[in-house]
């Protein structure tokens, strides 16, 4: 009887899966991906107006540029725990709703402190989305993971581009920076609708898919005992005991420093060089527009090369060229430096691909990704905050830009290490056997 019941449930799940429009599933992923960065990027082009209207001190401005990576690290580390207890479909709707609510509310914030708190709310939703997006892809597009991953990373870059280019024109037309920021809260509200609609239509599919996903990512549990460190039960703690895990986290953290320092300060650097707010937003848009096609091309190129180390180093070494150029000739070479920074930022999709290449199983990928992103984002807090502090101390952008340029050296070193064919499951299994405790 039990077997027949399970077989009947399986048949019903397959039947329901056939009723799920392919477009509806990919629309959920695209809309969530699009909304993961505009809230971070949109404040940069209007930072001067924010400082003036909300009386933001230099410390609060530096805190604002640091909040995204801090939330991505802390909340991202909690997301797997939330996923187990809340469920993937509910967490997807929650992430989109929190992003929308936080972005809309902060556009009406009366003072600097409330703006930071509401921004943190939105960034927490984005942190959840960062972690669950790969899960959504694995659960609903298991046979097309590579293609769908390329699509959502490109869409994510498209969200950055849209926020960089459109925030200032909308704010100018509406007469206030508040409308420029509120736009992205409205877009996030629209993004919640396809997710909620799909959940309502086919809840059993989400539930069955979520159970299969949990079976893959949770540590192995046996009768009366728990096995740690095995391939079927790879954990966050097991990854933390490996050199590969820490090098991966450092590599991810270094590229995050570059990305979020750019999101937070690049538009202001251009404005201080003499560009208008709209021109600074356009230059930031050039950086992002360059990343969009590379987000599709770079993962394919790295996957086809047997040794991606030279490519990673070539991308990393573009940072010092662009930053030194920006310090020496910020106006005459502005467009060239923006393009070079955009090409260098293609390290982000490469870092996501390297996580997948350095794990063999879904559980290994989830554990390595969770450790890499949470620790990497926390390490990268020093970037945007440090740039703000150095600018405040020196009164110029030369020292912060040279400091960012120097980070290309450890970026190359970690990239060369990760180019080696090392697999996290093999590293963990080669370590001393983990203890098996009787419950």
From TrEMBL:
The chain crosses the membrane at residues 20-36, 56-79, 91-109, 115-139, 151-175, 181-202, 244-267, 279-302, 309-329, 335-355, 375-393, 399-419. Keywords: Membrane, Transmembrane, Transmembrane helix. Pfam families: MFS_1. Gene3D superfamilies: MFS general substrate transporter like domains. Signal peptide: none annotated. PANTHER family: 2-NITROIMIDAZOLE TRANSPORTER, PTHR23523. This is CynX/NimT family MFS transporter. The lineage of its organism: Bacteria, Bacillati, Actinomycetota, Actinomycetes, Micrococcales.
